[in-house]
Amino acid sequence: MTQEPLQRVLVTGGAGYIGSHVVFALQETRRFKVISIDNHHNSHPESLARVSQIAKSNLPANATAQDKESTEIDAYQADLTNEAQVRAVFEKYGKGGIWGVIHIAAYKAVGESTEIPLTYYQNNVGATVQLLQIMSDFECTRFVYSSSATVYGTPPHIPIPETTRLQADSPYGRSKVMCEQILQDLTAAEPQRWRAISLRYFNPAGAHPSGLIGEEPRGRPGNLFPLLAHMAVGRVPPDLKVFGSDYPTPDGTCVRDYIHVVDLARGHLLALDALAPGSRIFAGVAADAPKIKAYNLGKGRGMSVLQIVEAMRKATGFEYKYEIVGRRRGDVPDLTADPTLAEKELGFKAPNDLETMCKDLWNWQTKNPKGYGQ
Ligand code: WQD
């Protein structure tokens, strides 16, 4: 049986927490040749070596040379704000040489973005505009964009449908809104050329069940899940602070829609396939209308901070002691997705439950007590 040739796909931020799981999801299919661009600002090159190792170990006995080729990653350490570096990567594969791009690389700390907004706009917006221009020059016009639930700001309704107005309330969230609007304008200007999907992540959590790849933030984690894991494994002092218990939520602490990172990663594969010619998600769209859609990637189940602490206590056996302190700037009471559009149009599913997220995170952390740095 003749095999379809591998499709080259560029993943920006491919060495990161989300990126490495997306690269794994692509390699799992053995349909893609993955290229990664990452400046390792918040990632480790070791992650991609391990992704490739998992893919190789999963090869069937009758693997073809092409199957083996699909487990090799063309990884480039480069900065997306450096035009020459990015252009050099595209030059290597020539016009039409890269089938599509999954753009994940971005700075993503809400609080930090309020302190250094220009850095966020340059890295998250400027670099995206430059990437799209280079893609256009090289006839690469399929784009999956890593957006975020933070584009909804404080949403008027829970769960949140994609039709909710976008009104972020941090430079980070606004950088995501701006990029979604840039994609709207680009696809409207060239509806016959461009196809794009924005994926609005809710709260990714957990790790690949192999325990070989996982979240490894530089320094003390700001996000709740990795912080709880670092505390339980003794990497940071267990001085857990709960940011506010006076929110209009069942137990007064913030509610978020946590989704297993493996499920989130598979959503990118579905989005990539939905950009192929003849895709049903654009079937009803007029030829001269923009080919762009946005989808929530969440479970549709909100969990509070205290529920997460309790779930991690059960998974790790660590007796967390916490102090309720004031609210954190930029936090909103509840971000819970309405996931039905992605389920209906992309066939997206997020079957892994909270217990599995905690178990897989803890498996990663205990197998890698110092992360990739050991
Ligand atoms: C979750 C809840 C905190 C730490 C993050 C990113 C955002 C997006 C999604 C990419 C909040 C509370 C936390 C602590 C706490 N990523 N908390 N004590 O803020 O929902 O969003 O992931 O798009 O960019 O910032 O996640 O894990 O930081 O916080 O009480 O020490 O846990 O207040 O309510 P968040 P988080």
Automatic annotation (TrEMBL):
UniProt pathway: Carbohydrate metabolism; galactose metabolism; Carbohydrate metabolism; hexose metabolism
Cited Gene3D superfamilies: NAD(P)-binding Rossmann-like Domain, UDP-galactose 4-epimerase, domain 1
Cited InterPro entries: Epimerase_deHydtase (IPR001509), NAD(P)-bd_dom_sf (IPR036291), UDP_G4E (IPR005886)
Cofactor(s) this protein cannot do without: NAD(+)
Pfam families attached to this UniProt entry: Epimerase (PF01370)
Reactions that this protein is recorded to catalyse: UDP-alpha-D-glucose = UDP-alpha-D-galactose
Job of this protein: Mutarotase converts alpha-aldose to the beta-anomer. It is active on D-glucose, L-arabinose, D-xylose, D-galactose, maltose and lactose.
Family the UniProt entry places it in: Belongs to the NAD(P)-dependent epimerase/dehydratase family. In the C-terminal section; belongs to the aldose epimerase family.
Quaternary structure note: Homodimer.
Name of the featured protein: UDP-glucose 4-epimerase
Species the sequence originates in: Neolentinus lepideus HHB14362 ss-1
Biological classification of the source: Eukaryota, Fungi, Dikarya, Basidiomycota, Agaricomycotina
